[in-house]
Design a protein that fits this description.
This protein is α/β, with parallel strands linked by helices. It folds into three domains: 110 residues, Tetrapyrrole methylase, N-terminal domain (Cobalt-precorrin-4 Transmethylase, domain 1); 107 residues, Tetrapyrrole methylase, C-terminal domain (Methyltransferase, Cobalt-precorrin-4 Transmethylase, Domain 2, 2-Layer Sandwich); 39 residues, no CATH class. It is built from twelve helices and ten strands. The protein has a five-stranded parallel beta sheet with strand order 3-2-4-1-5, sandwiched between helices. A five-stranded mixed beta sheet has the order 6-7-10-8-9. The radius of gyration is 25 Å and the shape is elongated.
Length: 282
């Protein structure tokens, strides 16, 4: 019989934020796969856990992943931990979980602390509907695409950001989505936990004069429905009816359906659209 992979959430700051089940599991498994063994050993020493550690991170996931899978297939039970919080979120844990399923190895998750949800609740910004983006892509085009989604989405957005990228990200957010309410959270669950509730423009002004330090979670207010509608109307007013129609047709929409959409978008009749583009025998 193969062993089992235990995906274990560990504290994101305060070492007391760990479940009894997680502590029991970490003591009982044969091996702990850790994103950073130097970081994890502090947690293990604090709770007097003597189980062997094996490094498993982004730079060695291909070779170590195969090794861990072989150990699991031999019947070893392994706990997977990240530097902090829930493994599999913005780390190579998701790759190991996928490998387990491909090799019919049982996986279970031990829930616990997660920085994204903790920051969202702490932010005071709407929690009814939200989107977690993790770290923004390093590729400029991909990054802009994500920010454009934020611009036209009414959901709250959660982003992780490193201190050396924070100011540039705030600038790009302001340039593309305008001024929104934002909560900039750091040092979660620690002594100096801080929630900076502000606007994007005020956050820019602050960090231009105060060097960012530590890892940040950005919780960004969603777009307002009326703002989205107003922008859509403005965009429509800047193109002709024919150009508007062609946008739908180029996406594969039938001409009749495209005419209906254009008429609805512009608040005019389908006959007006017909007359404007001189379409014969629809």
């Amino acid at each position: 019989m193969s062993g089992k992979l235990y995906v274990c959430a560990t504290p994101i700051g305060n070492l007391k934020d760990i479940t009894l089940r997680c502590l029991e599991t970490l003591k009982e498994v044969d091996l702990i796969a850790s994103e950073d063994t130097r970081h994890t050993i502090k947690l293990l020493n604090h709770y007097e856990i003597k189980v062997p550690l094996e490094s498993y991170h982004e730079n060695n996931k291909d070779t170590k992943g195969k090794k861990l899978i072989n150990l699991l297939l031999e019947g070893k039970n392994i706990a997977l931990v990240s530097d902090a919080g829930m493994p599999g979120i913005c780390d190579p844990g998701e790759d190991l979980i996928k490998l387990c399923y491909e090799n019919e190895i049982e996986v279970t998750v031990l829930p616990g602390a997660t920085a994204s949800i903790t920051a969202l609740i702490l932010s005071g910004i709407k929690t009814r509907s939200y989107c977690f983006e993790g770290f923004l892509p390093s590729n400029k085009k991909a990054k802009k695409e994500v920010i454009q989604r934020i611009k036209n989405d009414t959901r709250t957005y959660i982003i992780y950001e490193a201190p050396h990228h924070l100011l540039q990200t705030l600038k790009e957010l302001y340039d593309n989505i305008g001024n929104r309410n934002i909560a900039i959270v750091k040092e979660l669950t620690k002594k100096y936990e801080n929630v900076f509730k502000t606007s994007i423009i005020d956050a820019l002004a602050y960090f231009e004069n105060n060097t960012p330090k530590g890892e940040y979670v950005l919780v960004i207010e969603g777009a307002k429905e009326e703002d989205i509608l107003n922008e859509q109307k403005e965009q429509i007013n800047n193109i002709t009816i024919k150009e508007h129609l062609n946008q739908y047709v180029s996406k594969g929409m039938d001409i009749k359906e495209a005419m209906k959409k254009v008429a609805k978008d512009r608040g005019i009749s389908k006959r007006d659209v017909y007359n404007e583009i001189k379409v014969l025998k629809i």
